[in-house]
Design brief:
chaperone; 4 helices; 17% strand; protein-folding chaperone binding; alpha+beta; unfolded protein binding
Length: 187
């Protein structure tokens, strides 16, 4: 009987060890599953972090671009509104005869100085004049054809008259130069 009790006792120990081993395997499986879950969460958070970082960088670049454009082109409306002032001053200076220059030389000189100062201010702020000459080739990116006419001795597409200078603000057209263009098909 003692032997049977001993055998039962050994069987109980073996059964307990088997159950313990089973519990350990389940715990290990649970721990591995938890580790896998944590890794998946970590990867998801890392992905979200990288996307947020990329979004922040894109926003920074966009705001930098917007700032540069505002700095370069923010005054375009004012500059465009000042162009007729320049045109009127140029017309006034161009219309003065030699007799009038002698009589009102100080006034004319003052208008010319004001016109030059206006051009200096334009240049300081990135506005440059487009001054085509008669005989230049028509460029639709910088010129606006006000009329076409067949003029003897010219080629088609040549500028035959300049009505008004154009202006650019950095790399953008404020106003194209207004020109007349030859429509001759021969020379």
């Amino acid at each position: 009987m003692a032997e049977t009790q001993e055998e039962e006792f050994l069987d109980d120990i073996e059964q307990a060890e088997a159950e313990e081993e089973e519990i350990n395997i389940e715990e290990i499986s649970d721990e591995e599953a938890e580790i896998d879950t944590l890794r998946a969460e970590r990867d998801a958070f890392q992905d979200k972090f990288m996307r947020a970082l990329a979004d922040a960088e894109n926003a920074r670049k966009r705001s930098e671009k917007d700032r540069r454009e505002a700095e370069n082109y923010g005054g375009s409306r004012l500059a465009r509104d000042m162009l007729p002032v320049f045109d009127n001053m140029k017309r006034a200076v161009d219309s003065v005869t030699e007799d009038q220059k002698e009589i009102a030389s100080a006034l004319i000189e003052g208008v010319e100085l004001t016109m030059r100062e206006l051009l200096n201010v334009f240049q300081k702020h990135g506005v440059r004049m487009i001054s085509p000459e008669v005989g230049d080739r028509f460029d639709p990116n910088e010129h606006e054809a006000m009329f076409e006419a067949p003029v003897p001795g010219t080629k088609a597409g040549e500028i035959i008259q300049v009505s008004a200078q154009g202006f650019m603000l950095h790399d953008r057209i404020l106003r194209p130069a207004q020109v007349g263009v030859s429509s001759n098909t021969g020379s």
